[in-house]
């Protein structure tokens, strides 16, 4: 009996103990976390965490990612599992013995719980690379045991709380790649045990606080990619114990004492220093010795100037990056010899370095970037041990024969130089070459067979040269080739090739704008890896083979400007994102899977190609309507002819009365003036009075236009004839701000491009965000905005309330339709906050009906706000606003020059539009020279000369063409206008008589009276020392912009200089 009682007591105690541990608090917490997991691609958690696999002691050590200490969970490690989850981290507060929690590189959402201080034992917390979003709770500072905290790569925001100083045990703190903001708290300096601190790529502002240099254990300090400003504290670099310091990508400047001497010194402990992408100025002359202990030095993308030091005997320096500064002079030979250096990488790109490069003899230098300078002469004889060599965007000339002695180059870029001659037939030195770019030179001859023998070539770019002869079709099937660019040459023949036995890797193929003939090669269908194919602008014909459906990865296809016929294939891949088949002779119906593309992908051209149910206002709709009108009855034809005869008689009678009438300039525009103006305006408008107001038509004035289009008249005569306003002979001002015209709603003229029923014109859109018909455009009331040598601008109000600026191009200035269309389509993707977007164009059936549609920007142009003349809009512009406008213009030009690689070509104050209540500046009327004939371009440049914006080199050229540097000159003139409040075309009275604005300013500055140039409206603000200093700095920039073309800076430099003020 006693034995049974003892057994029963043992069973109860044992079973009760086991039941008391299952489920434990730790297990419940883990199971609660598991509920938030939405997707576990590997099953690492969902298939492992279950109650059946719990150890007897109550800790699930057999669960994946769980580590135990006795009966408690000590670590949860779920890194790199691809988990998708939305979790509440507060459940882990129940894991009272949790030391490590790591969930890096998943897709877990949530926030830092407010009870984070409950994680008493936590030493390691890594939530990096997830989707957490919240601010840091103040109680995070109560994690006294925490040694490693990484929240990098999430969406955390807000400031770092001052309580961060409570992390007394912290050794590694990584909050990088988030959205933290505010100043860096000084409490960070109290983390005396910190070894690694990374706060990069956030939104921190204000100065870098003092004290980092006193943190004795700090080895890595990374603050790059923020908005930290203020002076660079020389003590930070002089006294720090860190080996890695990265302050790049901020707004840091030099103090006044550092303008001459860049830095007083750098701590011997610093091996890696990155100060790139800031606003540092000064010179490095005689300062190379302070970098003596470094391995990596990056000062690129600043405003450092002067000559380059030779860095002699800086023995440990391996990587030196000084690109995109303002260094000038020659490149020291010691940098390229390597006798006293062990450099492996040297970047001096984007400076103003000059001279020639005879030899590169360094035995350690592997990567050398000298691109975007002004280096000249022939190519170097030898290149040492260089594997990566970039000499692009310089002025090197001569032929390529010097390449014969070069070493084992792997990456070579010689594009955008002045190289000529043939490509040599030598290959030994290029056995390792994988990237070759010789584009934008003047190379001639046929493609050498040797380029098909480079065994590792992945990218080959020979575009924009003068190469001729047939295509080496074996290039298309090279086993390693991924990109082949041969566009804009004179290559001829057919493109016949046989598929390769190996799997092709070619992703990008551009053969556009050559002289290829024959049929579309069926072999293209075997290039299954192809993503981009461009064969536009050739003489190819025939139909498109169905084998193109095999190219399943194709995303962009341009076959425009050829002679292709037949139907478009129905099996082109659904992966296609961009298609241009215009200017061909396709017929049939556009396949269903291609109807997602805009009509501009198929038209103009392809007159027999049908697009079922095209959007309203399309060229196809116009073509169909025009074709249908051929079925009009005889009665309708008689009526139309009679109407035309009557209309011509009325116009001739009106012209006779107008020409006989006396003309007197009037200060104000009356209804009578409006009617007379409409009769004489050389635009797509004329007057037809009626009960509904005046309607203007393109065809109504054709007769009068033909009689006068060839006459050459002065700008003053143009203005007098068009508006009845005669500008002063001193000003030569051919444009009045927003024209000053005042209309009632009933008397507004109306755009009339005629409906498709009576006019075979075509309306094309450059984006898909707007859609309307030509008839809707014809009904739009139009107000004159301004006039220039190439046409007139109007504000058009469509029925749906959309406001557009419609620029009418004067007869004879536009290119032929094919060239016009080709250039206009290049504007489709121009999108920038400081550039006015183009929306489309209208091509009418007669010479005088060419309209360009763009966004309407209100309240008006810079000219209408700046010049002290009757009708000026608002009070005089303040200095901060003028400075902002100048930065906005420079930013817009920088986008056009570098992102779009086109000059503006017609920059003036009337083409700078101020947008919205903040008056954000946006440049307009850009690249019109690309749409105009040579005669039209010359007339536009002549007009710029009258207005004071023409660069001297354009005046000296017989066939002037706008350039990047001529844009900079015009921008410099606009800066002078902003400074002085004067119009560039005005004659300014001086002691020696009248001079133009640029000469007047130069004279004042030469006399030491530069401040006398400033607009009187700025006199009150000149009392502010900071603003006066800014004005003088902008004046200096303006004067640099109007120097001779060889001394004139690029817009990038100008933009950076203005932004730093």
TrEMBL record:
Q: What is its membrane topology?
A: Single-pass membrane protein
The GO terms this record gives for MF are: ATP binding; protein kinase activity
Domain Protein kinase, first and last residues per copy? 779-1061
List the InterPro entries hit by this protein, alphabetically.
Answer: Inactive_SerThr-Kinase_ABA (IPR053059), Kinase-like_dom_sf (IPR011009), Leu-rich_rpt (IPR001611), Leu-rich_rpt_typical-subtyp (IPR003591), LRR_dom_sf (IPR032675), LRR_N_plant-typ (IPR013210), Prot_kinase_dom (IPR000719), Ser-Thr/Tyr_kinase_cat_dom (IPR001245)
Q: Can you name a GO cellular component term?
A: plasma membrane
Question: What does UniProt give as the signal peptide span?
Answer: 1-20
Alphabetical UniProt keywords: ATP-binding, Leucine-rich repeat, Membrane, Nucleotide-binding, Phosphoprotein, Receptor, Repeat, Signal, Transmembrane, Transmembrane helix
**One GO biological process term:** defense response
Database matches in PROSITE patterns: LRR (PS51450), PROTEIN_KINASE_DOM (PS50011)
PANTHER family linked? LRR RECEPTOR-LIKE SERINE_THREONINE-PROTEIN KINASE GHR1 (PTHR48003:SF4), OS07G0626500 PROTEIN (PTHR48003)
Q: What is this protein called?
A: Probable LRR receptor-like serine/threonine-protein kinase At4g20940 isoform X1
